[in-house]
From TrEMBL:
Pathway assignment: Amino-acid biosynthesis; L-arginine biosynthesis; N(2)-acetyl-L-ornithine from L-glutamate: step 3/4
Enzyme class (EC, first level): oxidoreductase
Organism: Pseudomonas graminis
Protein known as: N-acetyl-gamma-glutamyl-phosphate reductase
Domain Semialdehyde dehydrogenase NAD-binding, residue spans: 5-106
Transmembrane helix recorded as keyword: no
Record family assignment: Belongs to the NAGSA dehydrogenase family. Type 2 subfamily.
GO BP: any one term: L-arginine biosynthetic process
SMART domains in UniProt: Semialdhyde_dh (SM00859)
Gene field: argC
Xref: Pfam families: Semialdhyde_dh, Semialdhyde_dhC_1
Organism lineage: Bacteria, Pseudomonadati, Pseudomonadota, Gammaproteobacteria, Pseudomonadales
UniProt function note: Catalyzes the NADPH-dependent reduction of N-acetyl-5-glutamyl phosphate to yield N-acetyl-L-glutamate 5-semialdehyde.
Amino acid sequence: MPLPIVFIDGDQGTTGLQIHQRLQGRTDLHVVTLPAEHRKNPVSRAAAINACDIAVLCLPDDAARDAAASITNPDVRVIDASSAHRTHPDWVYGFAQMSDAQKQSIASARRVSNPGCYPTGAIGLLRPLLEAGLLPRDYPISINAVSGYSGKGRAGVDEFEGPDAAQSIPFQVYGLSLAHKHVPEIQQYSGLSERPVFVPAYGAFRQGIVLTIALQTRLLPHGVTGTTLHTALAKHYQGSGYVDVMPMEQSRALTGIDPRQLNGTDNLRLMVFENDGHVLLAAVFDNLGKGAAGAAVQNLDVMIAGG
């Protein structure tokens, strides 16, 4: 049986390079990329995408839409790593651990949209709690997150590692319009009925994310505590692979969270902290791993296995 052909469109970007590296040495698939002189040639790109089995789009949003629209071969399947199709009803959301049925949906999908980095942590924390009825769907959620500068893509790497790196700002909060493009994605797939407040930031480290959501138990259903929420998360992700929920006795011993602790892995770690009516939900992961390239490869493996 011939090996599946995987075409990476945009393999020179931050995510594309990471995906390419993860697939090097694999003997169960054949990776195709375009030579430099053909990367911006629409005819060459359309020919490559229509000749593959699975295309992985690592492109800006508009280019990803154009690439998807260029597909005429009905057998071509797509993983889009951009944000162009994340809330599109015809695309399957590529977070296999999100629910029991999601992995099977990805396995049989023709079009899969890779989750955003920040939404991976937010949805990973919120959806199980909302589905279990432990968190009201209209809870006034505020999400704070800090990513390594590679979350900006090549521009971020150039800013912090290029010739003018000494002028870079070591910590910067952004998204001050409170209209970040990840908000609709977080709301849709977590199951919130109201738009959450999302405050992202970049720090002076290359990669890694820590994302936190603060809750007050007085606004939760009667009797719900941090321990209740932790139990629900642990139950939801038990045996799921790639997602672990830190035992509360370990989280109680922490005095800080290093956003880089899972760098180089494709895993997501969730934590729950509580004290005197206050609960803090936290997620840590590599923005280039589970937050981007690692998730794309996980989805690719599910799609290949599912046929």
